[in-house]
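Morning F.,

Quick status update on the modeling queue. The single chain you submitted on Monday has been processed. Sequence for confirmation:
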Amino acid sequence: MYDNRHTGLTKWLNDGIPPAQVAEWAGNSVPVLLATYARCVEGQLPDLKRRLEAAGDLPELPGPG
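C-alpha cells below.
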C-alpha cells in the first residue's frame, strides 16, 4: 500500500502538479511532502527554465572576466 502511495505522489510531483496541491491530496504539509519527495522529483528543470525565459524572468548570468 505504501509503495503505491509513494509512486502516486512522486508521479504527481514529476508531472508538475504544484506541491501544495499534492500535499493537500496526501494529507501532508508542503514541508513534510518536500522533505520526503524533493529528491524524487526530476526532469522539471528544462521546462522551468523555458517558462522563466518565456516570461523574461530568468536572471542574466555574469559573463567571464
